[in-house]
Amino acid sequence: MKTVLLDKTKHDRNNFNCEITALNHYFKAMASQQAKKDNTRTFVLEDTTNNSQVIGFYTLTMTPIELRSLPSRLQKKHQSSTSGGLIARLGVDLKYKGQGFGEWLLIDALAKLLGASDSVAFPVIIVEAKDGSKHFYEKYGFTAFEDDESKLFITIADVRASLSNL
Ligand SMILES: CC(C)(COP(=O)(O)OP(=O)(O)OC[C@H]1O[C@@H](n2cnc3c(N)ncnc32)[C@H](O)[C@@H]1OP(=O)(O)O)[C@@H](O)C(=O)NCCC(=O)NCCS
After folding, report:
1. Ligand 1 centroid to residue 91 C-alpha, Å
2. What total number of domains does the chain contain?
3. Whose CA is nearest to atom 28 of ligand 1?
4. Is 147 a pocket residue for ligand 1 (Cβ < 6 Å)?
């Protein structure tokens, strides 16, 4: 399996439904525009039986790091850093839920950000967990920020260690 960049001329955005209205709206109406403006990149996993059909997507960009929200050992270590990678959105279409695609997309997104950090270093990856997805991210080693439970982080060092074991 392999993700490709969202292509609005090819991918069927209108029928995508991951059950979260804001995510569906972003995918349908914003993702392509935001990529054109170099603000975000959205990658999709296509159904191999029909390349226009989207199994799931994720959106990557950078975000400022609130150093004070990190555990103190990380605050000291990363005090000169200002930015982290951001998995801004991630969704799997209802038809494909519960078949391991969410896990696969998350690992793919982490691998892409790890690759980017080899060229432009940043110490953490942050996710914004939508309704009820906090536990999904915790399962893969993310930790919630103490002052904002809807935001979670994982260090690039931990991602590197985990992915090197795959
Ligand atoms: C969260 C989401 C991406 C998971 O996708 P999925 O393809 O159904 O997940 P998978 O089949 O890969 O599941 C992988 C594991 O995560 C678990 N999991 C899935 N969704 C979960 C959730 N919301 N909370 C906790 N665990 C979850 C599964 O039980 C599975 O664990 P197991 O291997 O021990 O059985 C998907 O349900 C979705 O698109 N939700 C709506 C959008 C959303 O919440 N996005 C994330 C925040 S932006």
Report:
1. 9
2. 1
3. 98
4. no
129 within ligand 1 shell (Cβ under 6 A): yes
Range of the domain at 123: 3-164
Full DSSP string of the chain? --EEE--TTTS--TT---S-HHHHHIIIIIHHHHHHTTS-EEEEEEETTEEEEEEEEEEEEEEE--GGGS-HHHHHHTTT--EEEEEEEEEE-GGGTTSSHHHHHHHHHHHHHHHHHHHS--SEEEEE--TT-HHHHHHTT-EEETTEEEEEEEEHHHHHHHHHT-
Predicted confidence band at 130 (pLDDT cuts at 50, 70, 90)?
Answer: confident
Examine the pLDDT at 131 and tell me if it is beyond 80: no
Give the CATH number, domain containing residue 20. Answer: 3.40.630.30
Mean pLDDT, range 68-75, rounded to an integer: 91
- 12-68 confidence digits (pLDDT tens): 999 999 999 999 999 999 999 999 999 999 999 999 999 999 999 999 999 999 888
Higher local confidence (pLDDT), 130 or 113: 113
Question: Ligand 1 atom 9: the closest Cα is on which residue?
Answer: 102
